[in-house]
Amino acid sequence: MVISREQQAGQHHSMMKGDRFSERVEQFKCFVTTLTNQNYVQEEIESSLKSGNDCYHSVRNILSFSLPSKNTKIKIHSSIILSVFLYGCETWSLTLMEERKLRVFENRLLRRIFGHERDEMTGEWSKLHNEELNDL
After folding, report:
1. Which of 109, 112, 14 has its CA nearest to residue 53?
2. Who's near 53: CB < 8 A, 6+ residues apart?
3. Which long-range contacts (C-beta less than 8 Å, at least 24 apart) are formed by 112-118?
4. pLDDT digits (tens, 9 = 90+) for 92-112
5. Most CB contacts within 10 A, which of 34, 66, 71, 108?
6. How many Cα atoms are found within 13 Å in the side-chain-facing hemisphere of 2?
7. How far apart (Å, rounded) are the C-alpha atoms in residues 102 and 86?
8. The pTM is what?
């Protein structure tokens, strides 16, 4: 399969190995990821977002307790949630909009995990900003 965002890409391509001929296909299913010749990944990203959200909800009780340290929570996030969420992402060719959607999802999860931050001077609660999440 020739992958391109152009409609005409790879229409005349075929492959022959020995006496076996491989035909050109519009899409190909590889494990849980469906690759298309137009590199249309929006459905895969939506499915991945749903899987990541489901995974978060399955470990939410552990992450909401104050007992686990931040390091433990980060390890759970990166080893369990991110690995489910990003499964098959090696095949994605992202636009800036799709990349932003993934980043927003991850930051939202991190905000749920770490909660709000209390300002020591004023005593007010505020949500963590993206830079603070990256620092964690």
Report:
1. 109
2. 105
3. 112/56, 112/60, 112/63, 113/63, 113/73, 113/77, 114/70, 114/73
4. 778 898 899 998 998 888 888
5. 34
6. 14
7. 9
8. 0.63
